[in-house]
Fold these 4 entries.
Entry 1:
Amino acid sequence: MADELTPPIHVWVFPPDRSMPATGRDLRVAIGTPGGPSTNSWKLWVKGHDVYMKCRDNFRELKASLHASGIWRYGFTEEFVRSKPNVLQQGVDRVWKRWQPSAAARMGPIIGFQVVALPQGLYLRANDRQSWPHSVAFVEPPADPGRLTVLSVTIVPGRQAISMSAGSRGAVIAVLSLADDRSAQLVATHEPKGDIETLIENAFHRAMSQIAAPESLPDPFVLLLHGTRGEDIPWVTALQVTRRR
């Protein structure tokens, strides 16, 4: 997935001879390395015509659902809200974002959801991951401090891995077949920080301004942020924050 001038994307898998991109019905993935820090892990899976992406660790109550009907959603799971009825005020929707891609957009590959990782998002250590199965794939972050890692859940007509554009730093790490000759493909890219870092910074300041007593937060603490970029693409990230003394 890289030419001589473009650094490749490294993915750690177990067993080491595991074929990539992954196929089958699901893939569990994190950004980081098995021996170093990482993000939370996320599970991508398909069921019939529909695609799902769900956090498996600190934020396991969150899920993206990309239905073949064209109704796409991201927010709290129904099971979580049912088990924790006091989490949401009465009348507040458990879905943070509900959107519908245009018919024209669905004729080609379309990004449905992104997980973004800045260096501050790699805060889990090996001791925090002892319960993880060996099957979790780790996407190694970039060595270049001017770039970050993005995992893009992409809905693709057909089942051939999409081609990366010339000069891009990316690779398709999963091709999961859907029932209607489409596929859900997980694309890992090392992107310039650019607009996404600005979006994350703005979301961070908005979130902190809404906390009544920030001094009461643990030090460090983890903050989950989400927003929208580009052509209405929802993204999510988690950052470990250390308060200034």
Entry 2:
Amino acid sequence: MLRERIEEARRRLGLGKRGLGLKALLKFREHLSRLRREGPFAVLYVAVAVESGLPPLKAFEALKDADSLPATRLEARRVLRDAQLGLRTLGEQLALEARSASGVWGRLLSTIVSVEASGLDPKAAFRDLLRLVLRDLRTDYERLARRFQSLISAASVAFGAFPMMIAVLLAVLASFNTVPMLLAFTAANALIAALWLLTVDLQVPDLLDYRPFYRRIALKWLPIGVAVGLAVYTGLLFLPISLVSTKALALALGALAFSLPASLEWKLQRRVGDELLESLPLVLRTVAEQVDRGLSPHQALENAAALGGFPKYTTRLLSLIVKEARVYGSLRDAYERVKALLPRPWRVSLELLTLADEAGAGSAAIHALADSMAEYVLAVRELRRSTSIYRWVALGMVGLTLGLLALVANTVMVKMALAGALLEENALISAPIRPPPPEELPAIKDWIYAAAAANSLALAVVTGKTVGWRLGDALPEVAKASLLILAFLAAGYWIL
């Protein structure tokens, strides 16, 4: 069974027969996951192509050039290749594929086969399919919003309440093996947080590839954050405050030195991305209205850019697209030049405008594209709003953890250390635990505060990613948590 699955994965992906095949299985699972996430856009692609006047089979063939949908493009090329190798027509191959396909991709193949076999009106059939897929997508996003609300509640327990309980418990029962236990728990908590981020990333909508931005800010600000943390830690070794919170203070200042400027850059990046997504339906509707007046989609896009009335960054993007199209001669060439800057919905829309322009489509295709993108943007907006209210949960847990630790460290731990000193003086008395002597208490407090600070920053990262979907949304939360940690450490030093 496993060997058959490996062979199927190699065949579908066009891989050679090298190695054990586990890599091929992992790549195949990733390919199916991406194909599932691209399914609604693939249906939109074919529906707009059919509205542009292409037959359903020709519309499916157009998917082999869908640069904005890489998994869909790979699957379409594989279907066309298998049809040639099996000496079958494309309709016969699609009928064979539809039997085993599932999800939105299976619906798309079944609709194409049904239209070809029954002679139904392809435009009406694909309008119905697109309407059904968008309705299902909105329902899926509502279900995802509820799941994310549950995830945020679970994160506040797993990365907030539980680490707080462990830190307070180890502070109350401080002993000689407290530090190794703290380090082991903090490392395990960081690993679980990384797995949590990966789990969230596999569920969120794929709107834009932020990896170039993350690499840039990491190379720009992370060395500064590390340098600040090391410099503070080294400098505090010669100050009295180093006896209480050297490591936590250095960690918080280092995190703040990195996250504060990075979050300011992320704020601009996020504003641009959100503005482009929100304004896309308006741009498409304006283009469709221009096509209604007899212009081609290319000319309509130029007219829309000239008319203006769009937000600042959308206007800049439209001007860039128009300039590139004028310099290189076509809308497709302009798309190739600017596609790396575009969010996924914009890439799909611009590619479909190019397809409609080359097919000589009328305004019906552009109106269908505008309607679909408006539904998609509305679903994404509602999903984002449903989780934004949970953004302050992390800060509340950080404040509660540090407050309890400050109280325990300055009351219970002191008395336990005095009791340990008495036990050391009287060797005849035995106890189940051996509290540390008073002279070792500051070092243990230092490690406890450091572990609490590290776990608080992990909670901020997890909450920011879960609430905002993007790793960049964790940067402001890390900056807020760092400031809160610094405020509590300063209050503890000057008050207690």
Entry 3:
Amino acid sequence: MMSETISRASVCEILSDIYLTDGEKIVSIKEVDKAYNAVLALPSAQPEQKKGTWVYKEDLKQYYCSECGYPSLTYDDTYIYGMDLPNFCEDCGADMRGEQE
């Protein structure tokens, strides 16, 4: 199983739901299974990194982020000065390096 970060508060909330209201700590296997499945269904606390590409708009001679539309380098910057497009969008943080393994 892959390691994921989940919220401690969310797990505690799930576990508190299986205890009886009088504080009794005896629960049925059915309730433990229900809590276990609820913990497995929790989303990761660390969102997946957005991935994008630099899209060149011919009419503006400018590169734009495919995720947020933020303008980056112009064609002249990359062609004349030999500059590389950034690996990450300066605005939304999308990873612009292409497919990751």
Entry 4:
Amino acid sequence: MPRALTAEWQRVASADQPEAARQWRLRRDLLAREGCHHWVFRNPADPDAFLEFIEAGSAAILEGARASAGMKPSAEVLIELELS
């Protein structure tokens, strides 16, 4: 079964970044319990720009985990291309 991924840009002002990091840690733990991986990357050229990735074994798992985490359902879900 192909894996599924969402990728969403977030803008977070410097003063709000400690709280954003705390929220991302909580989200990572919740998503892990739902069977997902969660990463956040910072753009070194724009320190207020963050790209948040969530990955799961299927679109259904990913969408369910995002809903459990209270995330908006409008994120574009990308499906892994099978290369074998």
